[in-house]
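Please describe our next protein:
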Amino acid sequence: MNIKEELYKLCDEYVNKRLQTVEEIISSNQKALQSETKSSAGDKHETGRAMLQLEMEKAGQQLAGITQMREILAKIEVAKASKIACLGSIIYTEKVNYFLSISAGQLVVEGNSYYAVSVSSPIGKLLLGKKEKETFFFNGNNFKVEKVE
C-alpha cells in the first residue's frame, strides 16, 4: 500500500469513528427522550426535553458534516498523480506535509506526519494549485513546496 492509499484509509477510518460516535449520541438521546415521563416538576421536564432536542439537532448537523466528508473522500482518486496540488494530493514542504482531503488532523504513515486538510480550509485554499518550488505564506511562516504527488 502506498502512502496516499494509507492516508486515504486513515481518513476513511476517521470518518467512520465520527459516524459511530454521532450514532451513539443519537441513540442515547432517543432513549432518554422516550424514557422522559411527565413528572410533577413540569418545567424541569420541559427543560430536559428541550436540552435533549438541542443535542439531537447538534448531532444531526454533525451527521450532515460526516456525509459531506464521505462525499469528498469519494471524489479522491488515490491512483491519480498530479504535479499540481488538487484534491487527493500530498504536498511536501520543508516544514510540514499535507494531504488535501478532509479535515482529519495529524496522520502518521511510516513514521512521517501528514496533516489531512480540507480544500475549503484556509491552508487548503492556499495549497490548491501549488506546484513544486512555489512558496506560500501561512500563519506568519513562509513555506516552500518541495514535492506534489
